[in-house]
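Lab notebook, design round three. We kept the backbone fixed and only want residue identities now. Task for the bench partner: fill in a sequence for the structure below.
Input structure tokens:
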């Protein structure tokens, strides 16, 4: 803490390998020149997931600069009050296999579970965790959006419904899992979902903004939080990269 540090966010294909090789060559060059002064000390993100967590500590969406031909991470939509501009997918060529959490709300899963599981299979999701749970009030509160929390009446209605019966929680795994699940669920208002696409899940199974059938993790950060919250004992997959990287 006695000296300042320089923090850089870099992007290119195979960024981790290329940067590690460049720093290795730079260090070797300094050693050949015999300079014994201050040595370059670096801390490099090891994976896209670690990069994601570290980037949001130092930067905001306005700090990033993109070129005309680069993948723009700044224009991503805001979902549930959380920006998606630092998704790990922005740092690697191709999608990563990640996990997300789907909670099927009381009353919805008991009569359409078979259809939901079938649709998950067709969308190439792998179920790596499943739990039947009665939500406590404090847990239900954590699933409510910040917009709902600003309206006391709406907040009470959402929490009352979430705690009214048993819910089914699924941990799902596939490439780009968080965004794919959000796209399948559609808007939280079933009427809006119906107007956009009648095949959206909330359009099919939801009846109101309160009883809209589903809760889905709205960002990578939220997915990690939800997995730790609902599946502290672990998952049934051989390895879950999302949780493994959280331990680094």
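Proposed sequence:
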């Amino acid at each position: 803490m006695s000296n300042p540090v320089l923090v850089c966010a870099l992007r290119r294909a195979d960024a981790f390998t290329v940067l590690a090789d460049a720093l290795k060559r730079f260090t070797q060059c300094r050693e050949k020149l015999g300079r014994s002064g201050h040595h370059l000390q670096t801390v490099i993100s090891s994976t896209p997931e670690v990069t994601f967590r570290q980037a949001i500590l130092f930067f905001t969406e306005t700090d990033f600069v993109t070129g005309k031909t680069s993948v723009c991470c700044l224009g991503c939509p805001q979902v549930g009050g959380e920006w998606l501009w630092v998704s790990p997918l922005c740092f690697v060529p191709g999608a990563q296999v990640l996990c997300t959490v789907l909670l099927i709300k009381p009353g919805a899963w008991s009569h359409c579970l078979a259809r939901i599981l079938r649709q998950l299979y067709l969308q190439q999701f792998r179920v790596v965790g499943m739990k039947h749970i009665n939500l406590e009030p404090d847990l239900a509160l954590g699933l409510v959006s910040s917009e709902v929390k600003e309206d006391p009446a709406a907040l009470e209605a959402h929490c009352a419904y979430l705690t009214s019966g048993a819910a089914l929680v699924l941990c799902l795994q596939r490439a780009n899992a968080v965004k794919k699940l959000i796209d399948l669920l559609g808007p939280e208002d079933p009427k809006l979902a119906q107007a956009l696409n009648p095949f959206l899940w909330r359009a099919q199974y939801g009846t109101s903004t309160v009883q809209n059938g589903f809760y889905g993790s709205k960002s990578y950060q939220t997915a990690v939080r939800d997995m730790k919250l609902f599946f502290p004992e672990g998952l049934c997959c051989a390895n879950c990269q999302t949780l493994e990287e959280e331990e680094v």
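Keep this in mind before ordering anything: The CA atoms of residues 145 and 228 lie 19 Å apart.
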